[in-house]
Write a structure and sequence with these properties.
By secondary structure, the protein is an all-alpha fold. The chain is built from three helices and no strands. The longest helix is centred in the middle third of the chain and has 24 residues, at 26-49. It is globular. It starts with a helix and ends with a helix.
């Protein structure tokens, strides 16, 4: 399993570029990327508490990113 610090170091720049591409705004991209990391940590903690260690950390990170982005889009379209 990849360590969280290592995952962050490897993927934070890529995640921020992805978020910038989605939002088109630096500030919103930072907010989106931050929300992805927070949600990712929540999922990892929940899985570890259930004694189900995360085996594909990178895959999970991008699944969470997609989920967070879709959730944000839904919020934008309903307000």
């Amino acid at each position: 399993m990849i360590h969280l610090t290592q995952l962050f170091d490897q993927h934070a720049p890529q995640l921020l570029r992805w978020a910038w591409g989605k939002t088109g705004d630096a500030s919103q991209a930072e907010d989106l990327a931050q929300e992805v990391w927070l949600q990712y940590l929540a999922v990892v903690r929940r899985e570890e508490a259930a004694e189900r260690p995360v085996r594909q950390a990178e895959h999970l990170l991008w699944r969470v990113a997609r989920f967070v982005w879709l959730k944000r889009l839904r919020q934008l379209t309903t307000h």
